[in-house]
Predict the structure.
Amino acid sequence: MGKVTGFLELDREVESYRDVGTRIQDFDEIFSGTHNLDQLQEQGSRCMDCGVPFCQSSNGCPIDNLIPEWNDLVYNNEWQEALERLEKTNNFPEFTGRVCPAPCEGSCVLGLNNPAVTIKNIELAIVDKGFEEGWIKVRDVESRSGKKVVIVGSGPAGLAAADELNQMGHSVTVYERSDRIGGLLMYGIPNMKLGKDIVDRRVELLRQEGIKFSTNIDIGRDISTAELQSKFDAVIFATGSTNARDLPAENRSASGIYPAMDFLTSNTKSLLNDGVADDSEFSAQGKDVIVIGGGDTGTDCIGTALRQGAKSITNFELMSQPPSDRSEGNPWPEWPTIFRVDYGHEESHKVFGKDPREYQLLTKSFIKDSNDKVSGIKTVNVEFVNGKLNEIKDTEKTWDAQLVLLSMGFVSPEHYLSDDAKIEIDERGNYKAEHGEFSTSKSGIFSAGDCRRGQSLVVWAINEGRGVAKSVDNFLAD
């Protein structure tokens, strides 16, 4: 490494977001838009030349990013070479640098007794500089194999597979049932975290490199899988995990209770189509909003509802508040399950004077008014004793709510496609295929991403997309 004592001399400095009071007035990205390259070079020097870089292990980076290498290159001001190393393993660092929770930092060896290296900041700066300098451009495909591959779904797994297979020389077509390409990247992640111009920029590059994209086509309904197989040499399902977990409490049928993804999608479509926040039934304007469930999606709901003009925002969590430091049962290099303040929590605190999260709450029933609209929620506090969930006596409470967003994850992909294709599903309802092979129970049909693995991270989707591309390439070579 260029500076072997960097981690001893320098503290961790994270690139800040835009000022809270400013950014909550719009739906632009929370990032400042500029990078302090001198600061990032110093941060790169904190990478400590450890014997085993756990940041790129299975606990750290699912796509095995060459993190120590590009940290050192950034420290030495070799930004273009750093980009070349980054692109060897990551098809879309401009996405992961914005939305990945950075498990690599959780596994950083320096993180054993000091704050980890700012890996995510450095990654984003490398790719942003690559676009600014014109280093990232359309790549020529030297020769074509004559083989045709179709991919169903244009999220990060589908796009990664398309990119890899296209560069291998195969002709690739991607079908998307929505009106825009990007899947989760387009509609599942709000503009504040991932600007849609960033997604469109990458899609346009892929299009210019020869990949064909078709929107508003729902495979399994508009076109059968059998028809696809008659026209293409291989088929990849990369549809994501879109069957949201529901909350079947009393009065669930009341209007105003929606899956989080429906809420986020509606607002993003409104911004893209009309340039304004959503004012439909999904709008949080003037409403008491309750988000049930945490995680990134829960935070995104908080940030979106806040920008729409919510009257109040409360976030229910079933579990207790995480500790500020790792517990004994959560050792390094596992992902640290600790208390974090994400952008939406910080923004809500700024507006309403407190963190929006309420812990150890179980929803007992929804309350509806005479028009069958949700007007509140009844809850009880709970605790886990020996792994069993117990209600705490005399803790019942009623909360006002005219908009309830269910952010409790996803249970499986929708099954009309697997039914049409007549492929097997596993015990969790995912399209059955082994990681590393990715082939389903029907020859010539492959599966990758959340529809195979279950709900996971964008970086895992890229891992799966790259992996299925290798399997399909081997299949086409036989």
Notes: The mean pLDDT is 97. Residues 256 and 272 are 23 Å apart (CA to CA). The radius of gyration is 23 Å. The chain has three domains: 6-132, 148-242+411-477, 246-408.
